Amino acid sequence: MCGIVGYIGSKPAYPILVKGLKRLEYRGYDSAGVALIDDNQQLNVYKTKGKVSELENFVIQKNISGNIGIAHTRWATHGEPCSENAHPHFSSSESLALIHNGIIENYAVLKEKLQAKGYVFKSSTDTEVLVQLIEYIKITNNLDLLTAVQLALQEVIGAYAIAVIEKNHPEQIIAARKSSPLVVGIGDGELFLASDATPIVEYTDKVVYLNDEEIAVLSNGTELKVVNLHNAEITPDVKTVVMNLGQLEKGGYSHFMLKEIFEQPDCIHDCMRGRVNVEGTNVALSAVIDHKEVMLRAKRFIIVACGTSWHAALIGKQLIENFCRIPVEVEYASEFRYRNPVINNEDVVIAISQSGETADTLAAVELAKSKGAFIYGICNAIGSSIPRATNTGSYIHVGPEIGVASTKAFTGQVTVLTMLALTLAKEKGTINQEDFLEVVGELNSIPEKMKEVLLLNDKIAELSKIFTYAHNFIYLGRGYSYPVALEGALKLKEISYIHAEGYPAAEMKHGPIALVDAEMPVVVIATHNALYEKVLSNIQEIKARKGKVIAVVNKGDTIISKIADICIELPSTIECLDPLITTVPLQMLAYHIAVCKGMDVDQPRNLAKSVTVE
Asked: Helices H, strands E: what count in the chain?
């Protein structure tokens, strides 16, 4: 959520900042702003409600000079989206400007104290409270900006990633983080700041990921300095980030989401590279092998996740229980962290997050660690907070996912969970060699079968036109396909704003069937597996009530194809790998319906890519 960009160096800051904000648009936002210090030490702040393009229009004819600046895209938490609540925020004297991601939980108490000191607030945000607090401490105690920031943050309860600049000191940016990501890029005589590496990689591949309660001092012409809240100096851990600029561009596709749907065959191949051998006869995850003893003695697995990652976790539960014969619980991280769960040192907690910064999942990790559990992370963003907080884990290696509605990250997560289950089952001896070889061999063929599914894009685009009228959808599946139904419904909700719900097909008659009529489209995942006959019965129940059935079936199906209104025919695979195939047409269906409705597919309203606040 929200995007931070900062620059200090010899180049004009504004073009770098605006380009950086555009790189971060995928995170979701409702306003944008920039603060610059010009050559005359004037601190200029410009901000608007709406898109970065509106900010660009707003600053036409305005002074945007200067070699130091900070910029921000805001996703509203405290206060509605408007120019007054947009960042950066001035201090009362207008000598400081601050941008902030996160939530200051005790802002009301701090605000009341500052108001008693005569401070007047222009916005409804918690962020303005922080910049006023920093200025109050700085002036009252005659302190430099770094010390004032350190003392102010010791009074703050909550999450933050901040950057502050001072009119009278145009040679530095002060940045700090706690529970919200912040990365510093180290260039040739210049320094960059951002919420993640995407705005930085165009200029440098050398980055420092700040840890909680660390403060970075970005000074012109000097090396990066990092200290903690108590001013103890910390040696920056400089890492090399591997990211292709082409991954951040649409590459000829009309939307990032469509590009990422079509990238999935290559992404899954990359995910398996070095883990599944070329012959398709063996799979091994080094994280499982290296920590074999703790994984083998685990009495229980608990998977914590949110949103799409939670749907992947439901598939992971079935894979691990089926292959490894270990009980698995799947928890919403947001509920897990607050319900005083029973955890011990014989538990393995698997945390799944595309961004590696999901606030609730990160908090769940910290809770589980405090109870003695072993933590295994499954993430996409290399160097993010969750991988750094876990004992071990596996990256899904699907490349940056820019579209807010997750696509390739979901299939990447399911692929890693499949490899985890297979590796552990082989080590435990709970899967026979014949079954192991069948699953590994078929997993190796999934990318080619995904390419076959993608050939249906034009057909799905055409049939999507029929359903733009719909106000509600039901998605049904059983077994491994039930989480796919949930994911398909979520995709449609996220980008088309059509209400959709996913259910286990057998549960339809326990309530949802009351909704079925001639105006209700029902998507049924009905591939040929052990529950095929059961799903066939569910389809007949829908048709008896005049429901419109879109059936996802295997090629050559001669039974359901006679009953359903529309059939989407897919290549066959084994049941446990079905989600990797059946998810793809549901992604395309949601995408094309949203496009037909004229929606902003990549940046749907009210949503953010990386949910770094509760």
From this structure: 19, 25
Backbone φ and ψ for 74, nearest 5 degrees, come out as -110, 135
Mean pLDDT of the chain: 91
CA-based angle 395:398:401, to the nearest 5? 110
DSSP letters, 25-38, are: GGG--SEEEEEEE-
DSSP type of residue 15: H
- The answer, yes or no, to whether residue 333 has pLDDT greater than 60, is yes
Q: 412, 431, 453 — which closes off a domain?
A: 453
The reply to whether 305 and 235 lie within a common domain is no
What CATH number did the domain enclosing 420 receive? 3.40.50.10490
Identify the pLDDT of residue 245. Answer: 58
Q: Rounded distance, CA 330 to CA 336, Å?
A: 10
Q: What is the DSSP annotation of 243-284? A: --GGGGS-TT-SSHHHHHHHTHHHHHHHHHTTTB-TTSS-B-
My answer on whether 355 and 406 are in the same domain is yes
Is residue 351 assigned to a domain?
Answer: yes
User: CB of 428 within 8 A of CB of 420?
Assistant: no
In a domain, 251, yes or no: no
Residue 487 and residue 418 in one domain: no
- Name the maximum alpha-carbon separation found in the chain: 81
Examine the domain organization and report whether 461 and 442 are in the same domain. no
d(CA 444, CA 446): 6
φ, ψ for residue 260, nearest 5 deg: -70, -30
End-to-end Cα spacing for the chain: 11
- Summarize pLDDT for 16-52 with one digit per residue, the tens: 999 999 888 776 678 899 999 998 999 999 999 888 8
Nearest Cα neighbor of 498 from 481, 478, 521 is: 521
H helices present in 278-407, as ranges: 286-290, 292-296, 307-324, 333-336, 359-370, 385-389
Q: In which element (H, E) is residue 128 found?
A: helix 126-141
Same domain, 203 and 216: yes
CB 463 within 8 A of CB 491: no
Q: Strand, helix or coil at 610?
A: coil
Provide the number of structural domains found in the chain: 3
CA 596 to chain centre: 25
Residue 307 near residue 406 (C-beta atoms within 8 A):
yes
Q: Of the listed 2, 267, 271, 567, which one is catalytic?
A: 2
* 318 in any annotated domain: yes
Instruction: Give the pLDDT score at 537.
Output: 86
| Alpha helices (H) along 404-470 | 408-428, 433-454, 457-464
- Same domain? For 373 and 489 the reply is no
CB of 272 closer than 8 Å to CB of 304:
no
Residue 2: active-site member: yes
Q: 219 lies in which domain range?
A: 3-243
The one catalytic residue among 408, 426, 449, 609: 609
For residue 491, indicate whether it is catalytic: no
